[in-house]
């Protein structure tokens, strides 16, 4: 049996008494890259929050690495760039990356030489060493995103949760973070990321397709089908998320629709 990072059973997640996600069952494998994809408001970040132990389920069961994520397993590193630091926080890049040590040290623990080396290594891996003494406020969005991922890397972890890590990045920054994601997997870690990019989801080992519920979870080829995407995104937006044009146009490809040209019409 595949080793699991997470398992959800009859899970309900939400805010106050508003249910945002109701999912009967889905799993996320360990030591693999999982992409959570779905339309705006479909519950991707909500699921990540629950996996990261930031949000308690309203009902049902969610286990991460065999336990409750609320008893924050220190082995799960959650990078929440959107919430991490309010604008104007007077903090340097090195300090921000060093905050990845807090789950281990607590707020008042003193970092050892090893801990400090870990911070430097994470900054090197993300290519932000030159920015170490700069204030976060002085960075571009892409540079800041690298800093957040470096913070996640600093934490001793088996699983890395990343909220839209590649969104809005230039090719260089995206490549750096993409490389990190794949190195993490090679090290036997799990990476769970949220995305709006179908290609990013196709490149993952496992996909969870959300629409306020789990539409499907499994390998990309089984999840990112026309039917599932139509279910999640609605028929009206299907053409925007359909396979690449060359797949649509080449009748020899297994996924091609043959002579069915109806898919080229834009439904209104
Ligand atoms: N802090 C909150 N308080 C109340 N409702 C929330 C909160 N965060 C999210 N929601 C609601 O929960 C639902 C799911 O939101 P969530 O942020 O998980 O979606 P998402 O798929 O990540 O969206 P996006 O693609 O826009 O980032 C939405 O209806 C949203 O309005």
TrEMBL record:
UniProt keywords, alphabetically: ATP-binding, Nucleotide-binding, Transport
Compositional bias of kind Basic and acidic residues: 241-260
Domain ABC transporter residue range list: 6-237
A GO term, aspect molecular function: ATP binding
Region feature Disordered, mapped onto this chain: 240-268
Family per similarity comment: Belongs to the ABC transporter superfamily.
Alphabetical list of PANTHER family matching this protein: IRON TRANSPORT SYSTEM ATP-BINDING PROTEIN HI_0361-RELATED (PTHR42734:SF5), METAL TRANSPORT SYSTEM ATP-BINDING PROTEIN TM_0124-RELATED (PTHR42734)
Protein name: Metal ABC transporter ATP-binding protein
